[in-house]
Amino acid sequence: MPKVKRKCVFNENLQKEYEFLKICVKPGIIDKIECIKCVAIFSIEHGGKSDITQHINTKPHKLAVESEKGNSERGLFMCARRQHNHSFISMDCTSQLIRKMYDKKFSCSRTKTKAIIVNVLYPYAYEKLKTYLSNANFVSILIDSSNHKDLKMIPILVRYFSPDSGLKTIILEFTDLPGETAEELTNYVWTLLKTWKIDKRVIALSADNTNTDFGGVILKRGKNNLFYRLKNNFGHHLIGVGCSAHILNNAIQTFLCLFK
Question: Which of 168, 188, 170 is CA-nearest to residue 178?
């Protein structure tokens, strides 16, 4: 009587060794494996591990792995470009320079650069930030303004404590406003905090010691300023920090004056 051969199965040991493979759960497909890298579906019932090795050596899988490697390199390159605030247009020149000096097959001009940053890096960063803020018990906000030609640029930063990475300060949003009145700033900041669902956890505000932000050099004077309006919106105690840079400068200046 011929010996019946057992069917090979995709067990936990194979899953740990080949993390890019998973059991296929698509309708109508039973006892087959799906490759995450090349989206191929195959069976290992007869050959087991040798079937996996055979799949890895196929041309479609190798091309997918090579493409993934190239995408990772482009993603890292694009991340560095945005970190240094380089424009998308500059990639037209940079791409040509890289092809001439290093890789003749390199292709990543302004269109592809924008697609990678807008459709890949931004959603990833957005979700990571959303997770970080949802785990933060308390946050403080920092606001400033500067003129760029005819625009009033308003960056909003948020500071929070993470048990994993300590104290973190990140840019929540950087946009332009038509003006810089207390009402305009309050509406903008309040809407942003509500959007990110952190309005209940803000405990401090840091901004310039101006009439618009705090009511003047002596903090928390008057009612027509950002601090007073936000405090009313929050409905709880809000710490007015003032300008951190000015506080540090005054502290150093006072220290030096004492030891003259």
Answer: 188
